[in-house]
Design a protein that fits this description.
heterodimer; A: alpha+beta; OB fold (Dihydrolipoamide Acetyltransferase, E2P); 2 domains; B: alpha/beta; 4-stranded parallel beta sheet; 6 strands; 41% helix
Chain lengths: 248, 198
Amino acid sequence: MPLRESEAIVLRTYPLGEGDRLVSFLSRSLGRMRGVAAGARRTKSRFGSTLEPLSYIRIWFFERETRDLVRVNQCELIESFLDVQSDYACGLALAQVSEITEAVLPEREASDAVFRLVLLTARAVKATRKPELPLAYFILWTVKLAGWLPELDRCARCGGGLGGAKVYASVARHGLACEKCRLPAMRPIVTESLAAAKKMLSQRLDKLAESAWPAGTAADLTGHLLELIEHQIERKLTTRRMMMESGA
Amino acid sequence: MPDFAEPIARLIEELKHLPGIGQKTAQRLAFHILRAEPEEALALAQAIRDAKEKIRECSVCNNITDTDPCFYCTSATRNRKTICVVEEPNNILAIEKTRQFSGLYHVLGGALSPLQGVGPEQLKIKSLIERLKGGVEEIIIATNPNAEGEATAVYISKLIKPLGIRVTRIGVGIPVGSDLEYADEITMLKAIEGRREL
């Protein structure tokens, strides 16, 4: 039973037994994993604040071949996002980052790109305290990295360019459709949203954050991408409902 | 699963619903109950029944109680100008053990947790705001010192502060009897932020 060490991001934790925690974390080198942190809920726990959601930590754990759950031995905090989560809107956005990452990424499949994306998003929310752009960026890139992002330039049905004021999308049919090829029940997306998406795919998040990003930019596209994620993971995102309820 | 007689299989199945109880523990408990004197087993059954039938939520503070309003809300000796806000009824016991707090309580029924689908609407925040009309001077927020508890504390304080009522938060930081050497940065930071003059 070797002791392993890795950089990780805590995705979420669940209370377990008397004073333990079940921790779902994204290891940089080993992918998404789950483990038990014994005594983590006790007042004098050696884990302290390291297991709070989205904490960027160095983790040491024991792994057995026959067991799904690892045993978390020790954690060291590299960067905390605890403070930013005391703002409800920011906390809600970061909870969505956790939920999507946990739902989209299979267990034990290392993805450095997703790891960097989660960290980048959390840092952007922490720095700006405005979660809308970082969250839209995260959702777009998650869908792209998962291989579900439709072509943004071309109609999936006729192959023509998407030049009109609006394009149309549906989770049931892969790809975007032009005005002529639209089908009933397809969701309209304004072309400004596609332009914003292209910008997000070509520019760094910190550069985008410096430019003006009016509220509601690409909201229709983000909504469609969230539906696409829900369609792929075959369940509704709890945080999406929470965001709708809070009007965020 | 081995074939137990139907009543014992049902008992094991019911015991398995309890938190932290798996198949083996449920079997052990079931056989312990079987071996116990009939009065002992029936007393357990009666205690469960009584708890379910007689215990309810206090209509004022949401604490669990067998009389409504609860002991704290009706007590003449409690300070009615201070309300301590906690997540769950069992948090009250931890505060009462100190014998230092003589105010009233308000149980929220959880903390803001978007991942678990708990938002402000799911918590008893509206009834807390209603209670503030009765001459309350201070609200002590005693939610857990984790991300969810902190978010709840900040959310509530944003609602209450404009009403001109003092909002305080319980101290967060190094536990008594521990060693500074093992404190992580955030715990230490909170301890320094919450330092007091000697």
